[in-house]
Amino acid sequence: MQENDLLESIRAGFATACPHVLIGPGDDCAAVRAPGPWGGVGAVELITTDQVIGGRHVDEQAAVELIARKAVARSVSDIAAMAGTPRWCVAAGALPAGMPQERAVALCAAIARWGERFGCPVVGGDIAAVPAGSAMVLTATVGGWAHPTRGPVRRDGARVGDGVWVSGRIGASLVSGRHMTFEPRVGTAAWLAEALGARLRAMIDVSDGLGIDAARVGRASGVRVRVELDRVPMNPEVGPGRAARLAACGDGEDYELLFTAAGDAALPAADPQGVPITRIGAVEGLDDVTRAGAVIVLEGGVEIDASGLGWEHGRG
Amino acid sequence: MQENDLLESIRAGFATACPHVLIGPGDDCAAVRAPGPWGGVGAVELITTDQVIGGRHVDEQAAVELIARKAVARSVSDIAAMAGTPRWCVAAGALPAGMPQERAVALCAAIARWGERFGCPVVGGDIAAVPAGSAMVLTATVGGWAHPTRGPVRRDGARVGDGVWVSGRIGASLVSGRHMTFEPRVGTAAWLAEALGARLRAMIDVSDGLGIDAARVGRASGVRVRVELDRVPMNPEVGPGRAARLAACGDGEDYELLFTAAGDAALPAADPQGVPITRIGAVEGLDDVTRAGAVIVLEGGVEIDASGLGWEHGRG
Questions:
Q1: In chain A, which ranges are continuous DSSP H helix?
Q2: Percent of chain B beyond pLDDT 90?
Q3: CB neighbours of B262 closer than 8 A, spacing ≥ 6?
Q4: Which of A274, B147, B155, B188 makes the best surface tag, with the fewest CB within 10 Å?
Q5: CA distance to partner chain A, nearest, from residue B294 (Å)
Q6: Each residue of A206-229: pLDDT tens digit?
Q7: Could A14 and B121 be called an inter-chain contact, meaning their C-beta atoms sit closer than 8 Å?
Q8: Pick among A10, A14, A28, A75 to test the B interface (most B CBs inside 10 A)
């Protein structure tokens, strides 16, 4: 089973034009236009779903608090990636029959707590047992509301001349354990949408690797995202050499915001909560749009295709 | 792992009062108030999530068309149970590594088709591989909009003197294969909400058994739902005897609507699409509210506690 091909088939299956569906599969979230209270048009809702698989995204023996946190936080990060505000969560768990009852209860309670903590209370759910030996599957679906004036920030809005920026620091998420404890950048994203408005052009959360996610923005936008390796702010666990820094661009699970903003947009070095904001490159035009994507530029000007730096997976 | 205890723990975890959450865990769907387009209040959104587990809810070797249909239809039926209109679906699949690629692709495409067919296009999704031997897990989350004037029809609105009604026919869903091919009663529910307004008091979809689901309405409403066995319309596969009819009230997976309406509400024998509508009992008061629930009344007046007729499971 190749997850990527399946992703494509999901997108291909979404052929219908439904006027209320503003964004279908292929971005961090879907976007749906709500009706107004008495008909007419309402707000734009963002919806995303993500699975945490035991033994793959989390160690099934890890603390339930951390497993629950990651399950909810990954979907919340997708809402942040479109500058939305998370408002509700529904959670489904397929739990192996051998899981002790106290652990299962603690897991459900922890998911409820983290939903509340991230602003999206768990309003419903489904629990089912799977045979002992099956992988645990936790599915968190989070809905939220797009920024009321900026609207959903898609990954396809980057324009030639934009600056390329990243929040926080990159790399070593797995070895540091941060992949279980990251803070989804909801506040940072809302601040960006408020401060920049339409000059906030494109955004994605760095879930699979700075390189591959930058390439996704470039491909979706039909441009080349150029990231200068020396400018990328690195986490302390990342070694000093060029090879280590380059590898960090493929580590993934950073859950930082990668965004492009109009070239003349000036941003402070940190958002009001102290999250670093760093300009790491620029968006370039292309004669041949089939070459759209991203490059990482090393000292001396050597360019490396960014699309190989990270993990492919099956998001739709 | 006891699914029912977990269900309780999910409900217990939902302690927060959030003004935008109108209905939390415990009904067929959650209900959330959307903001208006420029602030203010918007429509009421219904959200539900449900898992289909291979080897339990479906035969993993069944036709992908039927597996996909059931995965989407179960959640759509929950939207119908609150008289809502389904509008979007997000689907997540944890697929065993041994599943042939063509089958996985066909499954995703079939889910997209059924979402469209049921009025809730698949706007996003997530696909992940689980080790061969793990159970397949399909999670369909469906959102919709409550009836604009009646609002969400909850299971706790039954009042003394109401009539008790059911759509379609009951029983033998598994042996007949109807548990894979049922039609969620979205149209019937919308017609009821339109025709009866506030006199449509309480509603649930019969997923676990007419008996147990009637008892849920009774308990939630603090009343006794009294169902006369001889009045319950049975599917042709159900045998003629009293024992067979009683057993059919516990078969489950009928996905028909069980509802209560003001006692003087007159309804035709079928809705405009020809789905039978049958009055099967009445709602009675209780001196002792701790005895709220439902009874099935046999010929001769013998009453049987309905709460044992059906399947307990882990919905939240």
A1: 3-13, 64-81, 101-117, 173-176, 178-181, 186-196, 210-221, 242-248
A2: 87
A3: B159, B161, B162, B163, B196, B199, B201
A4: A274
A5: 24
A6: 999 999 999 999 999 999 999 999
A7: yes
A8: A10
Show residues of chain B in contact with A10, CB under 8 Å.
108, 112, 122, 125, 127
Contact B48, B152 (CB under 8 A): no
Q: Which residue from A138, A110, A95 is spatially nearest to B12, judged by alpha carbons?
A: A110
For chain A, what are the domain ranges? Answer: 3-145, 163-308
With cut-offs at 50, 70 and 90, classify the pLDDT of residue B316.
very low
Q: Is the predicted pLDDT of residue A47 greater than 80, yes or no? A: yes
Give the pairing type, strands A163-167 and A277-284: antiparallel
Give domain A3-145's CATH number out of 1.20.120.80, 3.40.309.10, 3.20.20.140, 3.30.1330.10: 3.30.1330.10
CATH superfamily entry for domain B163-308: PurM-like C-terminal domain (3.90.650.10)
Of B179, B175, B145, the residue nearest B52 (C-alpha) = B179
- The yes-or-no answer to whether A3-145 and A163-308 have a common fold is no
Rounded to whole angstroms, the Cα distance separating A297 from A227 reads 6
* B219-269 tens-digit pLDDT: 999 999 999 999 999 999 999 999 999 999 999 999 999 999 999 999 999
- Class (C level, CATH) for B17-145: alpha beta
SS3 (DSSP) at B30 = strand
Tell me what pLDDT residue B270 has: 98
- Cβ-defined contact of B121 to A148 (cutoff 8 Å): no
Interface probe for A, chosen from B108, B312, B313 (most Cβ of A below 10 Å), is B108
Say whether B25 and A123 touch across the interface (CB within 8 A).
yes
| Paired tokens of B106 | 């066909």
Q: Look at residues A92, A120, A34 and name the one whose alpha carbon lies nearest to residue B146.
A: A34
Which residue carries 């409550």 as its tokens? Answer: B146
